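1st attempt posting a full record on here, be nice pls
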Amino acid sequence: MTSAATDPLLEIADELYAASLSDFTPTRDARAKALKADGETELAAQVKALRKASLAAWVVDLFVRRDADQVEQVLSMGAALREAQAGMSGDDLRALTRQRRQLTAAITQQARSLAGEEGVKVTQAVADQVEATLTAAMVDERCGQAVRSGLLVSALSATGVDEVDVAAAVAVPEALGFVATARAPEPTARPDLRVVPDPDADAKARAAAEQALAEAQDEVVAAQSAYDDASVDVERLQARQLQLEAEIDELKRRIADLEETYDEVDDELGDADEVRAEALSSLEEATSVRDAAAKALEKLA
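the predicted structure (as tokens):
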């Protein structure tokens, strides 16, 4: 994993993208100005070039820093599911997709709640982008690295088949492999004017996520068992296939021997047919001579 301590740009980016979305641009510009004044012109230019994250990307970055353990569980589960799905049937894959959707939906709800605590309203359209990004992190390893970095600047979408341009979705290419610094919420004196319809929403969302994670784990276990059974069948059929190949080779050798014998008999038949034709010619000639002699004798008599 990349360490911010060894890369000044990543260290600064880690701080900037942890800030509120509205503070990003003025904070970035002030930091770049200070660096330029200190003579660090190149680093100042790099900081100045950092892009402001989209709302969906910022929500994911916020969640990564506030609940790193949950994110690691999601990414670990994604890796396990990617490994297991190779041996799954169509029904198993559909069940897996359903479980994954339940998990990402629950995590998205938690992320929306965190954004709400920061005074940011997350619409359903943005929530859909957040969920698509979390899904991409589960189905694609590099997308998972981008999410873990906490330096996303745009939402992600992946099918697990086509390659995703992950580098374009993070603040800097070096973000891949970097792990965001966990941060607790900043204390604030602002009154909380939000309307909270359900005070237990966070707990319920976490419980739903844990349940979805447990169910997904059960799917992995079941898929592993199905894979093991299928492997036994494959080994048995491979052994039978080898046996049949040996029998086919033996039959091919027998056919080759018979074909050789057939060719020999065919040659002998050709020779015998020629001999028979010559004998028939001699027979016809002798018969003709005999018949002529018989007629001559009959006249003399």
